[in-house]
Amino acid sequence: MSSMQSNSSANVSFVRPATFFIKGFSNVPYVKYYYVFLSFVYVVTVLGNSFIMSIIYLARRLHTVKYIAVCHLALSDLCGSSALIPKVIDTFLFEHQDISYEACLANMFFVYHFMNLQSLTILILAYDRLVAICFPLRYHAIVTKTAMFLIIGVIWIFSVTYFSVLVGLVNRLSFCGSNVIDSHFCDQGLIYKLACNDNSINLMMGRISFGLLMCTPLILIIISYFCIALALLKIAHGAERIKAMKTCTSHLMLVAIGYIPLISNNIAALTTPIDPNTRIINNSLRQIIPSMLNPIIYTLKTEEVMQSIKKLYKRSTNTTKKHDM
């Protein structure tokens, strides 16, 4: 292992590595093309999410409670991709695979934090649709801008606190063997397995994270759509029912893209041994593709957004013509 800083206490040797080595892919031909692909995905993600946030900011008709949540999702997608992809490209494309201990923990925190915000924001959007369809007359009284900002503030406080504890627990681990992380980033689930001392608390936190942060939001979303389905069955007119269903299509696509690969990967990891290269591809795509597709889905599949884009385009065109005249 590279240079170590060691402390001894009560006959127990505590070892903290100065650096970790992020291994990444092993024996994969033309792997650099994959990192070029990640670069392309990152550019599309930055442009797409910046575009959707700009449209929401510029279009007055989108200054609603729902689009506060959509804007927060775009911000979370942008920050999540920025926490992961540039570092992955720098690590492997430019062969900077050694990362300091402190930088590794910071990378772990930000990647997990923004992934969690993405998940919880999709849950917030499910709540918005639930109230809009099941309690349409009380929607504006229940889902207010103040309430939405409060909910977003709460999930930020919860996420920062939770992942500060999760990452902080790594500091109690002693690494007296390998410092090689067999992943594409500082993955907590792989780091605590390198420890020489008791890692049972870290293992327990990993299981809590899977149940609390991955399964619970999905279960709540499924329950919300079950309630929405019951409410839609009570709508007498088919046209109104279809109109109400259309307001949910974009969100359902987000749920499918965000949660199905996430849950599938974790179930597969728990039930069958997965080749490290396959695991890295699955995890990296699961982390970055939803962030790229979310703004595209909300742009192309949401009528309000498309109409706002057309209106802004006409306004800019008319302004340009006036200047030319």
List keywords for this structure.
mainly alpha
Please provide a brief summary of the model.
The protein contains 10 helices and 5 strands, in the order βββααβαααβααααα. It has 325 residues and is mainly alpha-helical.
Descriptive account of the structure:
The chain has 325 residues and is mainly α. 73% of the residues lie in helices and 6% in strands. It has helices at 31-58, 65-92, 101-134, 139-142, 145-168, 188-191, 200-233, 238-271, 276-300, 303-324, and strands at 4-9, 12-17, 19-22, 98-100, 180-181. The strands form two sheets. A three-stranded mixed sheet has the order 4-3-5. Strands 1-2 form a two-stranded antiparallel sheet. A hairpin with a 2-residue loop joins strand 1 and strand 2 (12-17). It is globular, with a radius of gyration of 23 Å. Mean pLDDT is 88; it is low at 1-12.
Terminal CA distance reads: 71 Å
**Mean of residue pLDDT values:** 88
The biggest beta sheet is recorded as: 3 strands, mixed
Order of helices and strands: EEEHHEHHHEHHHHH
Strand residue content: 5-15%
Strand order of the largest sheet: 4-3-5
Helix share of residues? over 70%
Rg on CA atoms, Å: 23 Å
Q: Which consecutive residue ranges, at least 5 long each, have pLDDT under 50? A: 1-12
Task: Draw up the topology in text.
Elements: E1 4-9, E2 12-17, E3 19-22, H1 31-58, H2 65-92, E4 98-100, H3 101-134, H4 139-142, H5 145-168, E5 180-181, H6 188-191, H7 200-233, H8 238-271, H9 276-300, H10 303-324
Parallel strand pairs: 3-5
Antiparallel strand pairs: 1-2, 3-4
